[in-house]
Amino acid sequence: MSTEHASGASDGVVKITPEAATQALELMDREGMDLDVGGLRLFVQQGGCAGLSYGMRFDDEPEEDDMVVESNDLRVFVDPASADYIGGSVLDYEAGLQAEGFHVENPNVVSECGCGESFRT
């Protein structure tokens, strides 16, 4: 398992904003998760009209080959295959009039579908 810290995340797998970390940690705490071991899994899966989409879920611990990014007390687990698609991305949390939720700003995306739910690299 490899670990990247926020200080080097700009050229690493993913950078986590303070807003995203706060929201994820609050949700994990509500679910009774161990915040010292568990984390948010960020992954890429086949699907959507553009071909790929993001997935997120909470995991109790990282898998053996995961990259673990730690920032603002949040641990984010990324599997090697997903890291190829999301390297250099920023995980943010946005709250606005139209929508509220987690958002991935991915510099590798060359096109997105009209609804913004899927992408192509």
UniProtKB/TrEMBL annotation:
Pfam families: Fe-S_biosyn. One of its GO terms (biological process) is iron-sulfur cluster assembly. This is Iron-sulfur cluster assembly accessory protein. GO terms for molecular function: 2 iron, 2 sulfur cluster binding; 4 iron, 4 sulfur cluster binding; iron ion binding. It comes from Haloplanus rallus. Coiled coil: none annotated. Residues 14-117 form the Core domain.
